[in-house]
Amino acid sequence: MTNSISPPDNSVVKEFMGNASYSKMIKFIAKLPPEQIASAQNAIDTFSALIELNFEFKQKTPYFDPTKKIRFNVSPIDNLEIWMGYTPNSSSSFTKKDIHSISENVNSTIQDLFPYGSMRDALLNELFSEPVYLKEDNWDKKLRKLQSSIITKSWFSDKTLEFIGLFPKARRIKRKVFIFAGETSSGKTYQALKRLKAAETGAYVGPLRLNALEVYDELTSEGIVCDLLTGEEKVVYDGASHQASTVELMPFTKPLDCAVIDEAQLMDDEERGHSFVSAILGAIAKEICITCPPWAVDKIKALCEMVGDDVEVVLLERKTKLVTTQDPIYDFPMQQATAIVAFSRKRIFQIRKLLPRDLKVGILYGGMPPEVRREQARKFRNKEVDVLISTDCIGLGLNLPIEHLVFDTVEKFDGVETRLLTQGEVLQIAGRAGRFGIFDTGYVSGMGNKAHNYIGRMLEEENHTVMLDKYFAAVPFFFVREFMEATGIQRISAALTLIYENVNFDSQIFDLTNIDVIMENLIFIEKHAPSLDPQEKWVIAHMPVQIEQCERVFYECLQLMSGMQKNISIEEGILNLPCGKQDTLFELERLFAQVDCVRWFLNRFPERVEEFADPVLIEHIRKRAEKKMNESVASIK
C-alpha cells in the first residue's frame, strides 16, 4: 500500500531542519504503517505551523517524529518556560489559528492568575529553574494549582508561624484582662456581663447553647441589639452591637470593646479545650472578662501573660450558704424550687414517671430545641413549675432560682467510660443551689446513702482539683477559612494539611489536637457531603466518635444533613447474636459506635436530625447493647 503522507516540503521547514535531518524524517515517514498515516499527517501539519509562526518547540527525539508528542512554548515571559503539548491523533491538527488561540488563552489566564507586581515576581521566582508542562485538556487547572501553590507560599511568608502568631490582630492591640474567679453562684458571670452591657460593642462566648441563649435574652431584654450564634441557631440583626454564642463561634475577625469568655476552666476539656484557648488568645477586644473557679486562675493568668496582656484577678465570695442535708433522699422531693440532676435524657424521663402525674415538672437538657429550653427555664423562674429535672448542663452558668438540688447519681458517662463525678464537677453542679436575694441557703442531697455521702465528702474536703500542665491547641477555623479564601483552595482537608506543615506548636506549652483523625473525617465528609457548609464540615470532623466503626451510619447522618436521606438505620440485629463469643463483643462495639454517632448528631443538630431519629429509641438501643455486652463478657469462658 502506497504511503499517502505529504511531507513538509516548503523552504521554511527545510531551512529550519537542515538537509540531513529532513532526509531522515522523510525516510522515517515512508516506513510508517497505514494505521498511523492520518495522525502522522496531522502532526506534520502542526509541526509546519509552529515553524512558520516561529514558536519554540521540542520533542524527545533527535529529529522530527510525527508519532511523538510535540511541545511548544506559550509563555508570555522570555525567561519562563510554559510548554503546551500536542499529541498526534487522527482527528485534528493545530493550525496556525489554533496555536495563536491557545497561546492567547494561556497568556490571558496567566495575566488573570498572576497580575503584574508581587504575584508575577513570585511566579518568576517559583518557576525560573523548572519548565511547566501543560496538557491541552486541563492546562487551566494546572495553572490554577500553580497559582494556589504560589499564593500559599506568599501568604505564609507574611505570617508569624508560631501558634500564638495565628492571632495577629489580637496581638496588635493592648488588652486588659479581668479574671472573675469564685465558686458557683458567686456572681462571676454577673460581674462580667455588667462590663459587657456597658461596652459599645461586645461578645459573650460560653460552653453551652443554653448559656448563649440566656445571655442573648438578657441583653435583648435590656435593649441591646444582640446576635445569637450557636451550632444550631443563628439569629442575626442588621447593626447588632453584641453577639452571644458558643465558644467555637468566637468572632475572631471582629474588633470589640469587650469580650466575655465564660467557664474558662473548660480549657482542660480534651474535646473542646482548644476552643477556649483560642478564644482567650484570639479575641480582638480591648477588654476581656474571663470567668472561672479559683483553682483555674493560675493557668488562665499564665496564658494571658504569655502574650503580654495586662491581667487583673478579681476573687469573689459565694453570696449564699451551701449546706448538705443531714439525711440522704430516698423519695424524690416535690417541694417548689427543687432541681433534680440526672446524667442522661432517658433517666430524666424515667424520673418524671416516678413523680406524681399532677406535679408541675419542668425538664431541661442540652439537646432540647432552643425555644423549648427557653420556655422551661422561664417557667421554673416564674414558679409555674415546682420541680426541675435537668442534666448537668444546669451546672454551667444557668441562672435559675434553686433552693434544693438533688443528685440522682454520682456517676456519669463521659463519652469514654462511666465514672464518678470529679470534685470540680460536684462543686460546679451543687453550687447552683441557693440564689442571692431569693434563697439565702442552698441545700444539696444525694439519692441514697452512697450518693449522699460522696456529695457531702466532696463539698467538705479542701478542693484538690488541679489543672493540666499544657494547653490544648488546634488551628482555629477562622484561620483555615481565611487561608482558603486567600488561596482559592476548596477542600478544608487540603488547606489544613498545608497549614499544619507551616505552623509550629511549642510542645512544651501546647498539646496538639490529634489532627490525623480530623483529617480522615474531613476527607470522608468532603466526599459524601460536599454541599454542607464549611463550618458544619469543620464541626462534624471534630466529632468524638470513631467513624471507621460506624461508617455507614455516619454516611447516613451526613446524607440526612444534606437533605439526601430521610432515615437512619442502626443494626439492632446485633442484639440477637449469641452470647459467649468474641465476635459478638466486636459486633456490639460496632453497635455502640453507631448509637454514639447518632446521639452526637442529635445533640449537635437536633432540629435537623430528631425528625428522623427518635432520641428515646436510640437510648433504649444503647441500654440493651450495654446489657448484652455485660452478658457476653460474663459468658465467655
From TrEMBL:
Matching Gene3D superfamilies: 1.20.272.40, P-loop containing nucleotide triphosphate hydrolases
UniProt key word Hydrolase: yes
Domain Helicase C-terminal: 315-500
SMART domains referenced in this protein's UniProt entry, alphabetically: HELICc (SM00490)
Keywords on record: ATP-binding, Helicase, Hydrolase, Nucleotide-binding
Entry's Gene Ontology molecular function annotations: ATP binding; helicase activity; hydrolase activity
Record carries keyword ATP-binding: yes
Taxonomic superkingdom: Bacteria
Protein name (database record): Helicase-related protein
